[in-house]
Amino acid sequence: xxxxxxxxxxxxxxxxxxxxxxxxxxxxxxxxxxxxxxxxxxxxxxxxxxxxxxxxxxxxxxxxxxxxxxxxxxxxxxxxxxxxxxxxxxxxxxxxxxxxxxx
Length: 103
Description:
Elements: H1 5-8, H2 10-20, H3 22-25, H4 34-49, H5 56-75, H6 79-92
């Protein structure tokens, strides 16, 4: 008997089913990914409304800057201060600032 398209996905779903309900046992975990979606919204809108980048290197640079600024904003850190520290470290061979919290 042939498997339906839905039944082919059941083993993977069953294997991760416990993770789907983690928020019930841990009050600090949200049941949705709304926070992640909201965090990306500004970056996605900015990319869509700009003329976009003209090269692969430009695309990599833009994605890294958007990742860094979004992370720093979520942590409540001064974006310009960290970018300045990174620029100075790059040009003087110093240690790059970390995006990890409490660093």
